[in-house]
Model the fold of this input.
Amino acid sequence: MFHKHTWKEIARTYAPTMIESGLIEYLNGNVRMSPVMINGQTTILWECEDCHEREKEEMLGKEIK
Done:
């Protein structure tokens, strides 16, 4: 059955950047850093209030409500 999803946020996490976590001090200039290591990553888990289907949304940086 098809329906329009009514999404509700059920979880939000943030992975900090290497600078925020303090790990940058232990790296030398030869290490290649991914965009997630440079910008951090926010992950949001959504659930439909009707059918309970779940979707995960990932984005670079810190997403503010």
Notes: The first helix runs from residue 18 to 21.
